[in-house]
């Protein structure tokens, strides 16, 4: 699931452009973003971060600053490690 502070119509353009197959949540009030501590140091824009959340709702792993290239493989590797 993706979360951004963008309005839904902006998110939809992003979803369409990159052909995303997962849901996006519009968090214009930054409630979720703040709850996860995902704002930049200046508190203005959100960081691109990934939070791996287990089936019990616990944060299992955090990538605080994501570089898109190779990131999916990194996430999959941690999932495999945690799964044993």
Blueprint (SSEs and pairs):
Elements: E1 2-4, H1 8-18, E2 24-26, H2 31-35, E3 50-53, E4 59-63, H3 71-83
Parallel strand pairs: 1-2
Antiparallel strand pairs: 3-4
Describe it for me?
The chain is an alpha+beta fold. The protein folds into two domains: 1-39, no CATH class; 48-84, no CATH class. The protein has helices at residues 8-18, 31-35, 71-83, and strands spanning 2-4, 24-26, 50-53, 59-63. Strands 1-2 form a two-stranded parallel ribbon. Strands 3-4 form a two-stranded antiparallel sheet. The mean pLDDT is 87.
Entry keywords:
84 residues; alpha+beta; 2 domains; two-stranded parallel ribbon; two-stranded antiparallel sheet; 3 helices; 35% helix; globular
Radius of gyration: 14 Å
Intertermini distance? 24 Å
Order of strands side by side in the largest beta sheet? Answer: 1-2
Strand content: 15-25%
In DSSP terms (H or I, runs of 4 or more residues), the helix count works out at 3
| Rough outline | globular
Give the helix level as a range of percent: 25-40%
Number of domains: 2
Please state the oligomeric state of the protein chains shown.
Answer: single chain
Largest sheet: 2 strands, parallel
- What is the average per-residue confidence, as pLDDT, rounded to a whole number? 87
The H-and-E topology, N to C, reads as: EHEHEEH
Class based on secondary structure composition and strand pairing: alpha+beta
- According to DSSP, the number of beta strands is 4
Low confidence ranges: none
């Amino acid at each position: 699931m993706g979360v951004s502070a963008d309005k839904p119509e902006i998110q939809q353009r992003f979803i369409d452009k990159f052909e995303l197959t997962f849901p996006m949540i519009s968090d214009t009030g930054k409630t979720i973003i703040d709850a996860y501590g995902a704002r930049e140091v200046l508190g203005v824009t959100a960081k691109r971060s990934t939070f791996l959340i287990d089936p019990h709702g616990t944060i299992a792993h955090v990538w605080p600053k994501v570089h898109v290239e190779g990131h999916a493989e990194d996430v999959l590797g941690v999932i495999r490690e945690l799964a044993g």
